[in-house]
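Hi everyone,

Forwarding the result from last night's run.
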Amino acid sequence: ENELAAEEMSGASARGKKRARSWKRGRGGSKPDVWDPKKTRRFEGRDDGRQKKDHDGAEGTGWERFPLTNAAFEEYYQQQGVVPSDEWDAFLECLRKRLPSTFRINGSGKYAAYLKKKLQEKLVAGLQTQGTLELDGYAVQPPRPIPWYPHDLAWHIDCSRNQIRKVPLLAQIHDFLKRENDIGSISRQEEVSMIPPLMLDVQPEHWVLDMCAAPGSKTLQLLELVQGTEGQASTGLVVANDADIKRCNLLIHQTKRMNSPCLVVTNHEAQSYPMVKRTTDAGQELLQYDRILCDVPCSGDGTMRKAPDLWRRWTPGSANGLHPLQLKIAKKAAQLLKVGGRLVYSTCSLNPVENEAVVAALLKHCEGRLQLVDMSQSFAPLKRRPGLVTWKVRGKRAGSKWFDAWDQVDPSDPDAGGLVESMFPPLEGSETALSRCVRVLPHHGDTGGFFVAVLEKTAELPVPASHVSQNARKGHQHTDNDKSDHRDVPAPTPAPAQASAPAREQAIPADGPECTEASVLETTVGPSDPQDQQQGQPEQDGMQEQGPKGILPKGQDVVAPAAPREDRGTLDDTPPSRTVLDPPKERPLTKSKKSSGVDPIVPVTDPDLLHSIGDFYGLSALPYPLHQCLISRTPGAPVPKKLYYISSSAKELLDADRRGSLRVFSVGVKAFERQSMKDGSVPCKFRLAQDSVRFLAPYVSKQRLALRLSDFRALLKHRCLLTTGNESSSVPLLSDPAAVEDLRSGRCGPGTCVISIRKDDTLEPVVESGLSLEEFTVTAWQGAKSLNLLVGEVESSKLLDALADQFGPAETKQNEGESNEVSHEVDEQENASEC
């Protein structure tokens, strides 16, 4: 018995040890659910400039402000001469103050003119009548437009984000900012961050690459400039890239408010961004961009006003460590830029090692084929300083010595660790050019610190000798082999339909004594960055998605080019038929690498699906055929869950990427979503999404319903209208006889419908807000007895406010009387039909 008991005890102890090991892996166990202050992180930063005290058990919890001083920081920038000596005290004093709030109205949005008018005439004027505002003993000015930003679309508020909530008189402004930011009408963005996109001089037809795009405020600004105010998909394109997959998700979340079909989000390391080229009848063509924004990763010491923890973390070694990466990104951007295009290099750093040193090294590398643009006369109200022409370099160790030139550096010197030649000022010839750079100092305009350099490409870049010899050897091998392997050569694609496309691409000449950089890129097209081997990237379902390489119905093989915007297409405008006997296979537009975790882009090729959508909604006179502007992200699915609308420019880019070099994370805007109807009363399996109403509603000729203003307001307010029966206390009855007749006759059948306000001679605006009746367009679901709104509450509330401002408040009593009259009419008609 004793031996048996001992065996049981040993087995129990063994099982107990196993359980103990499993609990240590994070599955629970006997750990006490008690907060231990000794195990918490020390000095946890807060956005209000305070930090947590060290907990030693004896003291209670408490908070103290960050020390807004750093002797190394002050010594470094006094030696560099970044700030004039007579302005040094004002510079430091400004850095220790909170950063004011700034925001920008979406210039291409339908509410732009309305919001600016409301902001000027109601919110700001109302604050001015309240007298002087005070906060913490200081006078606070009402919001005012930023003087250098065009059309008064950017605004400045003296308070920080946290302070706005503390001023009762600014509560209305705070609510305004919060709501408009949620629906994408405005963007909260730092003032200096608005400078680079404007200096790019983007036009609606340009192709723009944002190499380091997250979190996305500058990308939104670029989209506004490309999309313009026409309200339709632009012929331009914005490609937003970021190396971090999580930051790509943040980027998508920010840009989704814009609902733009001409946005493509990619996930690559910027210094290894793939070169996309195509094969046409004219030969190999390299796809390049009209504008490139290079807002590179930096030490960020220009943002100390909004990130006070940088005071204690700042060291000169941060800039030294980032300089090589910044230069690599800038060189790659110069390769991707077309001749005559514009490149903007920017940082939120004050350090010349990250700024002028990178620009000088880039100019030297390009051998005169890249030139700095003088921006001193642009945006005249913007206060700025010219770029530095000389500076010093210091090692990353504390107390290390200063170096004035590269020839003073001894490789064996411990203080010279990590220093490279490109960090130092150029010996001669670049002084005048570097002065064309733009430096924005915090105390000049109550902003953060920023650096901008604008460059234009005058000729293709020179080719390194090693690349030329490698291409020569490769060409010799191809001529010696009668059976060369052409598997890596992309298939021919048609020339783009846009008139500006030939200027965007540079032809690669045949083998010869002269070789440009474009010819070298043929050997480096594939994804070369390490992140191409990442795993586990999530599918972005419901976000903006990806674009096509020739969307065509089944039974065809040749990819049709996108039709020009002047030529209107219909569903029947299909590419020419195949002449071979084998049926075509549906192939993705982008290749899905097993390790990338990104779903491929799939063309919508089912003729039955396309015709059901086109016939149900009466889609006609589209900018280009329906099968060329819809894609999905669900390969192999019999019926895709969601269909995305893409612009012709996004389609053109993906047509060019035959080799799947680009890891496209997101493209397009959600257009249709699959629905399930048990009774089969709706013939179309897809409902129209509100996200794409702005682009598709002008072409919808069926499933349209026009309501008079009172009913439209009631639908927005209650989110539902009864179409039959008696009015209840919570849900009103549709009171418009013409709309009731449209529903009864079947002109607007069951399913998703596009609802707008009926044009009436008596419908006169009280105030001209800049909004047309076409802007008040929503989607709703028509059921058996009701209309149900398919718009979010925030947007419907915004539409109600805009209606109240433009047409005055709703007349409740009159609406109720009209509703009761029509209710009796509907009941009498139903009784007559039953008899």
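The chain has a mean pLDDT of 76.

Cheers,
N.
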